[in-house]
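Archive transcription. Copying these from loose printouts into the bound notebook so they stop getting lost. Printout 1 of 2:
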Amino acid sequence: MGGGFLARPLFVMYEGGGAMHPIELARKSAALGSVKDAQRVYALAIQQSSDPRELLEAALYILQSGGDYRISYTCLRNMYNQGYFCEDILPVMIEAFYKPNVRELKSRYERNCRRLKKYPYLFRKDFPSFEELPVLFFPYDDHGFVPYYPDRQRFGDYINFNNPVISRNFFKDLEKPILAGDVYSQYELEYLHDTVRKSEDVGRENHIYLHYTEWKTFCACLQCLNMRPLLDDQKLVFLIEDEITRYPIDFRKEFGIDYSRYSVKRFGVHEINRLIWHTQLSAHNGGDFFNEVFDSHPNLLSLPSIMMEKMQEQIQALADAMNGADSLKAAKEIFRDWFPETVEELYLMKNRSLKDVMVAAYLNTNMAVSGLNWSARIAPAVFFQPHFDNIIYMLLTDSKGNTVLDAPPLEMLHQTPLIQGFKYIKTFTPLRRFTTSHAASVKFMYEFSLLRQKQVAEGENVTVNVVSDVISERVFNRSFMIDPEDRLYKDSILVRFEDGKLNPKATFTALAAFLDLPYTESMLYCSEGGRRDPHPVTKGFDTAPVYKTYDGYANESERYFIEYFLRDAYAYYGYDFHYYDGAPVDEEKLETLISNFTVINHYIRLTWRVFFEYMDLKRDDGQPISPEESAEAKEEVLETYVKSFREKRLHHARTLMSGLRFINKNGQPLRMMPMLKPDPALLEQPLYH
């Protein structure tokens, strides 16, 4: 298979009638000088053709004509690995993608070698020349590379050294210094460097031991890594191949350094760069339960769920107070209840951000530090669950069914520095059976409305709350589908409430591993600020909430409707249907279901009736009407309002049945958030279905 093909004319004119194959149409467009059309059709040919000659032709045309190089790149790589036209493809790949970047790769490699040769805790110094490295890195885009292995004559998979994902449980065991094998991610290396505390700050040997099983592979990756931010404070110890036997090093014996002479330092604001974002999928998914499990964890700064708007106001007020201090003395007076060390650090901090103020506030809140281990090997993470009264999603749909999920709280979260200011973000989302969560929400909304009515009757100035159309809100809420381009969800997992209740050890061991935390004794019980079982009704790991159905707050038609429209989520997340029978659903069936939404309509009617009582009705001529007439008119308005939900729901249902394709704002498809799998070795009960 070689160069004979390249002598063949690339393009021929199509003659004759009938349907034209993509490759023929592409050749015709190219011959006519319609470059853009040819590129488009050649790209289609790459998708549809299995003929290696056609694929090569298409890839070369797109590349040589200045089209999307990624299409050509991927096609050529795949063909090479399959053994097609290798002698032709490799020179093209080298010329197009490697040579323009080789100088930068070589320069980075040699800079890293120079730094590491001077570094005291890398004990091997026989760096090969750049030309001897066993891997060539072909840049693919601004983020990553495709490696080429000359000895195997094969391209590897795409690598993004800065992919913002922590892939393993580095901090499972904090009894000994951290030992990690073959860490080639720049993001993870910086994460380890930024999270593990200096030995001098914890009063004991606390280096990060990086073991690399192959010296030449380690050296090869120095083409792509940047060692500069990792070496200055000498936290890292590199162990190459059989040097693993040196772990852990006795620094007093080998280097004359006795870390025990140092005293433990308080955590500094600058040390805390990791956020665990506990998201609110919707109301009543067991969020408080997860907060209580992680409360008092020795490596977390944790608080119960906080209203997002209130949190922003409070942090901004603290920031304004610090900005208004004209001296360190004034700042210490303003923040006299805080640790002086924290106040001083924050006051003197250059480019102080709201994230820094938030961290300082957590460090100086008793509840947040109730279980904190101040002498831990690692800096704590901030455990944060921003709460919203209700997250109502809108579906922005075009004529082709492409649909974008939109909700104002999402924009708030994406814009706030309280989240975006953290360098390292882990995200987890609790999920509860949708019908149970729905019914619990109706119950809460109704009972809260009654509370508000009572407060108003007692003269308090509060807003009267009502039950909304939470069925439509529920089926529109597909926030379990995530945007692959969204930084906040790059490293995310969904956790089923039922798994946490029925198999707590298996679930929370796995969740701790995902969040890169040790599984600790504090996770064996529920607490709030260190106080155990703060909510006796749902005490600890009591399994009753798993099976509670709140029958007075939802009927079978309402639940059938929810299960049908969320059936893909039921399948993906392992929930069996309890109400939907699997039968096809047409518009007639939908109308029947919606006509039987009697329970939700009942609670809407009850709570809105109170709201309408505050209406001041008058005749057309402005004259007051009798109490009897007023009551009748209000009841008529109420019934008209409740009936209006029927057509709205039918419209919503028709929209959902039309076959929607959920995408982000750049047109990329959304994907289901991965689900946490409890540790199978620790299961106490069968998995919930």
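Printout 2 of 2:
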Amino acid sequence: MGTIDISYYNLFVGLLLLAIPFFYLWKFKTGLLKPAVIGTLRMIIQLFFIGIYLKYLFLWNNPWINFLWVIVMIFVAGQTALVRTGLKRRILLIPITVGFLCSVILVGLYFIGIVLQLDNIFSAQYFIPIFGILMGNMLSSNVIALNTYYSGLKREQQLYRYLLGNGATRQEAQAPFIKQAIIKSFSPLIAKGPYDVWGQWGVADDVICAGNEKSMQFLEDVLSEVIDLFPSEYIHVGGDECPKVRWEKCPKCQARIKAEGIKGDKKHSAEEYLQSYVISRMEKFVESKGRHIIGWDEILEGGLAPNATVMSWRGMDGGIEAAKQKHNVVMTPNTYVYLDYYQSADTDLEPEAIGGYLPLEKVYSFEPTAGISPEDQKYVIGAQANLWTEYIPTFSQVEYMIMPRIDAVADIQWSDPSKKDYQTFLPRVARMTQLYDRLGYNYGKHIFDINASLTTNTENGTLDIALTKLGEGDIYYTVDGSDPTIASIKYEGPVQINQDCEFKAIVVRPNGTSRIFSEDIFFNKATMKPITLKEQPSKGYVFNGAQVLVDGLRGGSNYKTGHWLGFQGKDLDATIDLKEPTEIQKVSFNTNVVKGDWIMGASAVTVKVSDDGKNFKEVASKKIPELTQNDKDGLYPQEISFAPVKARYVEIIINSSKLPKWHGGAGSPAFLFVDEIEIL
């Protein structure tokens, strides 16, 4: 193989071609002309001297000089890698250079000696170019790898320092990284795995493989360590929020279902019975160690292990069912005792929470044995409040979320249900807050704010506002949106509102004022009119019934405050009595979308009118586009217009939908949350 001689003339012509990009860099004022010219000159000078050196290197063709030249290239590449990655630790130069040396020499000799089968593997015309190409490619790949590794390391370092800076101990700050390491270590045990570590809060489809016997051994190993560490009679096995998506597709899980003779039925799928199989196995193991299992109410799905205790968190139904089956129950329903929920409907004045709405009065209304027959109530061994801290970064906020709601939880468990009374409970809580003040606790002071009862008066067409307060002081209010003071209207009794207004009220006490109670009220032709529903809302989302839809109060983003009605698997079909023939031409409403909670928008709306409330005719209908995966959660206003028509009764049908293909619950009925139907 020879070399190609290029004349100076041809070289000059080739360089002239660079004038074309230089011209456009100048013409379009990119600011890159000077760096491009300097870079080109540097390249020409470097290539000139390298060319001269290589000319004599090829002429000498000395194996030792050739090999020494490769060693020099490797050393320069190591230095270059450190510079390009911005690494200042020179100690890394040695391992990087050694790595380059071993890999380049081995690959290069293999290629020249075995692949090309050259007689003289150290011939300069082959040795130098091939090793140079290998070195260049390896340098690029190693720079990318080092940048990726150390950028990830820097992010974790920043997170670690952030956690320390926000009051975490060293153990607490290290916990996320230890968790990732643990999950990575057993990722091969995940159904259809391995998968990356879950990087955000939520429920992942990736779960442990129930068909892999190594998974079962892993679970037993973990439980063994837990049992050795904790002397408790009960060992909690979790069991909640276990999607069956992976199990449905995992060959090992399906093989386990077949081998164990597991079959689905109308009540449960085969995969749900597979979960019961896993829980039963773990129960036998825990029982063999002289302990008993306890788990969340999902362990009821597919059948309950014989000696299991159930913690009912998805409402009361799971606990009621477990008690019927003569299993011990701990009642901990999210509807009453999840203290990570907002404790005020005015969420703008509250620290961020996971959502929901759980005021002190609602907590106090909790009765752990409600709905359970007297003979089965003995299986309810207690109640528990939960505080999950995904949205609670400080212990001060922990105090705020717990107190004084934890006082209500205590009263629930320690008091005779027949003697429970919220109005007598409140003064006791007020005295308890004096202790909180002395101890410097950060607690919720909502009990000292105004308590408002808003009632739709369909007879008078008004919203009746009744206000109460705890302790001394007088209430003052305004209806024009201004902040109330002691000079405002003094509250003497219920206030009747019959037009648009911004109602505000405060309690004025000797030691200061309460937080401002505020409510925006909007009137339209449907407001405060009688309304009926063909289908009642889903359990848990009935609140104050149909009248919520026309009470003049528009619901915010929190769908659990009582301003929204929720329907799952059925449409909203409401009939509004305008009391007299009225000309109308538009209907509007809001839907609340929280995709992670299976709450989607409406799929269609239809408007019908009638003069007698019996015979209706359709005046308008339209389909509503399906939400995409990229659409954000929040309020989605909808409206439908039509030619003016006069009628007394208006029927509005708002159609729900199924969860779309891109959703984790695809195909299941979605929730539809609607508020304030307005007729114009």
